[in-house]
Amino acid sequence: MAIRAHMETLRERHQELETAISSEKKHPAHDELRIVELKRQKLKIKDQLEELRSQMKAN
Question: CA-based, 20 to 30 A from 40: which of 4, 16, 34, 47?
Answer without folding.
Answer: 4
